[in-house]
Amino acid sequence: MSLGHGMGEHAPGRTLLFDAFPVAHHQLLGHGLAVAALRARSTSPVAIANNYSPVRPAGDTDADRAAAAAYDALHNRLFTDPLLGRGYPDALGLDPGVMRDGDLDVIAAPIDVLGVNYYNPTGIRAPEADSPLPFELVPLEGYPRTAFDWPVAPDGLRELLLLLHERYGGALPPIQVTESGCAYADAPDADGRVHDPERIAYLDGHIRAVRQAMAEGVPVTGYFVWSLLDNWEWAEGFTKRFGLVHVDFDTQRRTPKSSYAWFSDLVRR
Question: In terms of DSSP H, where are the helices of the chain?
Fold first, then answer.
């Protein structure tokens, strides 16, 4: 919603900013109606996934902390508070005119699993006076970077899982990490092999972070790598490779990377 309708980075390329709230509300309402339809016809577990990011103020000022809280409300709470029965975050000052009586009850239909997509934390500072947004994104320094220029911060996943656990308490269903991965410029060597030690290090660190969160009481029941194959990545097309398996997009030849063997061995053990 935010990238496609709020910021215009993805299709359909709308730049509605906070006026995109009706899109978010109807996505959630559609989810709630789908839960009811599935429950009426199946006993299979029902889940929904959201992309999360722990937020770190760029400075130690009240303005920076307020900006971080606003970004947290938009990125992390907008889609989760109403799912777990809390309604929409007051901090966003959203126009409730789009909602009808009973919508929030439909959205808050119980789910069996909350899917957590995590890639990196986000740095936030107070915006300039003429900014249309109550925050400004800033790079986080001191971390290795992926091909997307995202910081590699495994402990951010542990931080995020603990935040969800503390924020929602008994309302939080079991969690599955439904996306976690990294893009690098992988290519076969002269022998046709694809070595990606950076991805192995990434996955090792993030899986250990999940285990630490579990040891601290967070109910995590699954971890899924993004992704099995190199694939089409939204506005980036075929230029960013997340897969455990390299894909030659001209010939469609598949080559398991060294991370594929590492992850297979980890799962087997």
Answer: 21-41, 62-72, 103-107, 154-168, 197-215, 258-268
